Amino acid sequence: MAKLKKLEEFREEIDQCVKCGACRAHCPAFGAVKHEGRVARGKIALADALLDGEVEMEDRFLLDMSQCLLCGSCYAQCPNKVPTEEIVAATRREIAAQKGLSTFGKGVATVLKNQGLMDLLAKSGGRLSSLLFKKLPDNSGLRLRFPAPFISADRTLPNITAKPFRDRHPEFIKGEAGQPTVLFFTGCGINYMYPQVGEAMLKALTFLGVTIIIPKGQACCGLPAVSAGAGEAVEGLAEQNLAELGKHCCDYIVTACASCNAGLGKIYPELGEEFADYRTKVKDIFVFLVEMGLAEKLNALPKAAQRKKVTYHDPCHLRTRGITKEPRQILKALPQVDYVEMESAGNCCGLGGTYSVYHYDTAKQIGAKKANFIAASGAELVATDCPGCIMQLQDSINHAAGEQRALHILDLLAEALP
Ligand code: SF4
Ligand code: SF4
């Protein structure tokens, strides 16, 4: 049985925070609004006080706990490796256990647990797209025509496809003898909003002769439910995925979404022994492609006469787990790309799951800094490795009236492959 840790099981980790403040300068929430309740040590102190019965779950407490992007930037800098994002997530589950889920959290849990409902909503949204949304100039996204709960009217949204990615392909695509078999965990972003990223992934894997399995019954990884404090939904989704993915024999489970990669590769193995092999079996697509020698193959291609200046944004869910080299290796090797590193490429984009729903104003402030760095790099494109980051980056660029486009590295890779 998949089981998330309860807040009281984090006592030891909480005690390891020495309140040194080394994490402060790296916290995007604190950077946007300089308030101690936003920074890691403040949240850890609150979680500690809650366990000791010294604070109540009153409004201020709930607000402070909601103001965390679960980005893990504090953990990456912390000398004692205190897992603040896990402590905050556990505190949100405790809040949900005692006070019930928020309206939005209930909605998230209901939709994510019901694949049929998610399919139906996406298909309806895709078909009604022109009624619900207006297109932004240069095809840089959509905006709602009418006010809607939890979505700001000035937010740039991606298109929703009327035909999800997984409905477009068979479950099994045979590759060449002697090449590995990979299971493609698409995640919801690629399945419903960025299907072209999935197509690009298939092109790259097929180019290498890899056998591909795209399980029809795969569910959401559960990361949005982690952010919402919906613990039972996370556990249920993990079990569903374990059962569905376990029907197929594969060498690796490959993702092209940083959040899915963290969900399957980091959170699932902590849910129980049955997930233990996910630690090594789950691979980010660019880690896999580099291991397969694709960077060398791309480097051998002649450089294109017309090249685009491209920079890279590190998704927190990869950066904080040390996956920074491989996406850049592939990007730099592309014949049509002139790579330029932007300042603070590892700064969070500001999405943070439910954070940008509850705190869109500060999410925009965090995104504005990122949009400035993108503009200062001189790049015309910002590539990344996460559908959620693409959505937030394009939104931030549009708010800054920039002309750059945000896209997945796989979009560029597909252009370069025959
Ligand atoms: S997880 Fe991110 S937003 Fe939350 S306290 Fe740590 S650095 Fe700040
Ligand atoms: S979370 Fe880590 S870096 Fe931040 S105050 Fe505590 S010990 Fe220091």
What does this entry look like structurally?
- This protein is α/β, with parallel strands linked by helices.
- Helices cover 49% and strands 9% of the residues.
- The chain contains 23 helices and 11 strands.
- The strands form 3 sheets. It has a 5-stranded mixed β-sheet.
- The termini are far apart.
Number of helices: 23
| Overall body shape | globular
Uncertain segments are: none
Indicate the CATH topology of the domain at 294-416: Rossmann fold
Provide the gyration radius in Å: 21 Å
| Helix/strand structural class | alpha/beta
Q: What is the count of β-strands?
A: 11
Taking strands numbered 1, 2, ... along the chain, how are they ordered across the largest sheet?
Answer: 3-5-4-6-7
Oligomer: single chain
N→C terminal distance: 45 Å
SSE diagram, text form:
Blueprint: H1 11-15, H2 28-32, H3 40-51, H4 59-66, H5 73-77, H6 84-99, H7 103-113, H8 115-127, H9 129-132, E1 133-135, E2 142-144, E3 172-173, E4 181-185, H10 187-193, H11 195-207, E5 211-213, H12 223-228, H13 231-245, E6 252-255, H14 258-267, H15 278-281, E7 282-284, H16 285-291, H17 294-299, E8 308-312, H18 316-319, H19 325-333, E9 337-339, H20 355-358, H21 360-377, E10 381-384, H22 387-399, E11 405-408, H23 409-416
Parallel strand pairs: 4-5, 4-6, 6-7, 8-9, 8-10, 10-11
Antiparallel strand pairs: 1-2, 3-5
Helix pairs in contact: 3-6, 7-13, 10-11, 11-23, 16-19, 21-22
The protein binds iron/sulfur cluster (SF4) (2 copies).
